[in-house]
Design goal:
A hairpin with a 2-residue loop joins strand 3 and strand 4. Strands 2-1-6-5-4-3 form a 6-stranded mixed sheet, with helices on one face. The longest helix has 19 residues. The N and C termini lie far apart (39 Å). By secondary structure, the chain is an alpha+beta fold. It has one domain: Roll (Nuclear Transport Factor 2, Chain: A), CATH 3.10.450.
Length: 139
């Protein structure tokens, strides 16, 4: 008997994609200090510095990022692939490209690689990051 593929319900796909786009829009619009809203209280982030960053450390990073107005970025996310892990928990894999300008410098590619997430739905029905790992291409 062939295995049955389990998929993420379409309403969750839309909600998760909107969540992913909202998170990068916060950074690109100078509101990175609001990024901790996207991370579960027990969540962690890898790939932004000393690994892993817990919620408190990520909050410190996000506040500093928002204060750095000389760095302007545009995040592009594509090839989003979602895999259900269990009830209210999904793995997301996406390709992430970040363009940046530092001060009056030249536009450059700041990051190209994979954004590997585990997302959970909280008791209010919101999707939050339980874990995010940024993996540069070629590492």
């Amino acid at each position: 008997m062939p295995a049955t593929a389990v998929s993420v319900p379409v309403e969750d796909v839309r909600a998760i994609e909107a969540f992913l786009y909202r998170a990068v829009e916060l950074t690109d619009s100078g509101k990175a200090d609001r990024l901790p809203e996207t991370l579960a209280p027990h969540g962690r982030v890898l790939g932004l510095g000393p690994d892993p960053l817990n919620h408190e450390e990520f909050t410190t990073w996000a506040i500093a990022r928002a204060a750095n107005t000389t760095r302007r970025t545009r995040h592009l996310i594509t090839n989003i692939r979602l895999t259900p892990l269990e009830e209210a928990k999904v793995r997301s894999q996406a390709t992430l490209l970040i363009y940046a300008i530092e001060g009056e410098g030249e536009l450059h590619v700041s990051f190209l690689g994979d954004q590997l997430d585990v997302l959970i739905r909280d008791e209010r029905g919101r999707w939050l990051l339980e874990e995010r790992e940024l993996v540069p291409l070629g590492s």
